[in-house]
Design brief:
Helix content: 25-40%
Number of strands: 10
Order of helices and strands: EEEHEEEHHHHEHEHEEHH
Largest sheet: 6 strands, mixed
Radius of gyration: 18 Å
Distance between the termini: 38 Å
Length: 255
């Protein structure tokens, strides 16, 4: 099976009047179809920068990034991007927010509107389709933001700390919800997070980046020996603590 995404020897530096700062150095990784990757690393090491490179918002100074063997194009419609803030527009209903991406691309068709309505119903937001974002809980807002992204039918979903603004209990529930949704929709994803437990519970592999300039320090394959694995049930697996200690040690070995 060929990788869906290939990041090959990618480097990037920021240039200012004060000089050059290397953010990423010779980063290489792959994502297989249907796979969920998590990226962890010290604060400021370039995790979000890597996502911006993958989706084409930034251009690498060195190396290549390929989707299905072809170079990623800027702002490609094949990649969905879910940010820390949900960016729901208060003057639009939940339903109108879900359709926003389709409107921007001129793709509001009866078929895609039906898909959006089906996802609202499937993921428990159909009763709130005419509500304003301020009437939703934090978890419901993130589900609405995810549906807005999935309505575009991306081949790959990038998640940049989408749960970090939520309280702990809501964060656990929403990460479990979204993990189940992505599995049901068969969407490959890359999650950037500071939360080691979140990375282990959701991902098939965890990419550990070093401090800036970031290199791939280690790649940990997560095998919890569970047939029906969900983000919440993963936290109860006997192997979970061992993976946590391994990743914690890697992140702190140069602290």
């Amino acid at each position: 099976m060929k990788p869906l995404l290939e990041v090959r020897d990618v480097s990037l530096s920021y240039h200012t009047l004060q000089g050059e700062t290397t953010a990423l150095s010779h980063i290489s990784l792959t994502l297989m179809p249907g796979e969920f990757l998590a990226i962890v690393g010290p604060s400021g090491c370039g995790k979000s920068t890597l996502l911006n490179l993958i989706c084409g918002l930034l251009e690498a100074e060195q190396g290549t990034i390929l989707m299905d063997g072809s170079p990623v194009q800027p702002q490609t419609s094949r990649i969905g991007y879910m940010l820390q803030k949900d960016h729901l527009l208060e003057w639009r209903s939940v339903y109108k927010n879900v359709l926003l991406g389709l409107e921007i691309r001129g793709e509001v068709t009866p078929e895609k509107k039906a898909l959006a309505e089906e996802m609202l119903k499937t993921y428990g937001l159909d009763k709130f389709k005419n509500a304003r974002p301020s009437q939703l809980s934090g978890g419901m807002r993130q589900r609405a933001a995810l549906i807005r992204t999935l309505a575009l039918k991306p081949d790959l979903l990038l998640l940049d700390e989408p749960f970090s603004a939520l309280d702990y209990q809501t964060r656990l529930n929403v990460s479990d919800d979204i993990g189940k949704i992505l599995k049901k929709e068969h969407k490959p994803a890359i999650l950037v997070t500071h939360d080691i437990s979140e990375a282990i519970s959701m991902a098939d592999r965890v990419i550990i980046l070093s401090a800036r300039p970031a290199v791939v320090q280690k790649i940990v394959t997560i095998d919890l020996g569970m047939e029906e694995r969900t983000p919440l049930s993963s936290r109860n697996a006997p192997e979970f603590k061992s993976y946590f200690n391994l990743i914690w040690k890697e992140l702190n070995q140069n602290a």
